[in-house]
Design brief:
The protein is an alpha+beta fold. Helix content is 48%, strand content 12%. It has a three-stranded antiparallel β-sheet, with helices on one face.
C-alpha cells in the first residue's frame, strides 16, 4: 500500500471514530434554581427535559422562557465540546476541523445576557379583565 493510500485510510478511520464519539456526546444545563434541566446532543437537539415541581408554580410563559434560556446555554457549549473532541480524534491541523467549528459557532452562538426576572406579585398575576378570579388557572385541579 502506498503512503498516500495509508494516510487516506487512516484519515477515514479517524473520521469514523469522530462520528462515533460525537454521537454519544451530550450537554446538560440547568436554570439557576434547578427547576428546569435540559440536555442537548452535540448537534444541538433537545434530548431530555426535566421540570421540577415547585411550591409556587410560575406562569407558563416564565417556565417556557427558562427552558429556552437553558437550551440556548447548552447549545452555546457545543462548539467547545466539538473542538475538544475533534482535536483529540483528528488533531488541530485538519482543515475540516476548523470549518466544522466555524459552522458550530455560527449555529450555536453565545446567548445574550439574560435580564433578571421580575418577582411575582399579586398585581402581576391578577387578571384585570374580570374573566378570572384571583386563583391560578390550575389551582383547583
Amino acid at each position: 500500500m502506498a503512503d498516500w493510500e495509508r494516510q487516506v485510510s487512516e484519515n477515514a478511520q479517524r473520521y469514523r471514530d469522530l462520528t462515533t464519539r460525537l454521537a454519544s456526546l451530550s450537554i446538560t444545563e440547568s436554570s439557576g434554581d434547578g427547576a428546569v434541566k435540559v440536555t442537548v446532543s452535540a448537534t444541538g437537539l433537545l434530548t431530555d427535559l426535566v421540570l421540577r415541581d415547585r411550591w409556587h408554580p410560575e406562569p407558563l410563559a416564565d417556565v417556557a422562557a427558562e427552558i429556552m434560556a437553558c437550551l440556548r446555554r447548552a447549545q452555546a457549549r457545543i462548539p467547545d465540546l466539538l473542538r475538544d473532541t475533534m482535536f483529540d480524534v483528528v488533531g488541530p491541523d485538519d482543515p475540516g476541523t476548523h470549518l466544522l467549528l466555524q459552522d458550530a459557532r455560527e449555529r450555536f452562538p453565545e446567548p445574550p445576557e439574560q435580564q433578571p426576572r421580575k418577582a411575582r406579585t399579586p398585581e402581576r398575576d391578577r387578571d384585570t379583565t374580570g374573566d378570572w378570579d384571583e386563583r391560578d388557572v390550575l389551582e383547583d385541579v
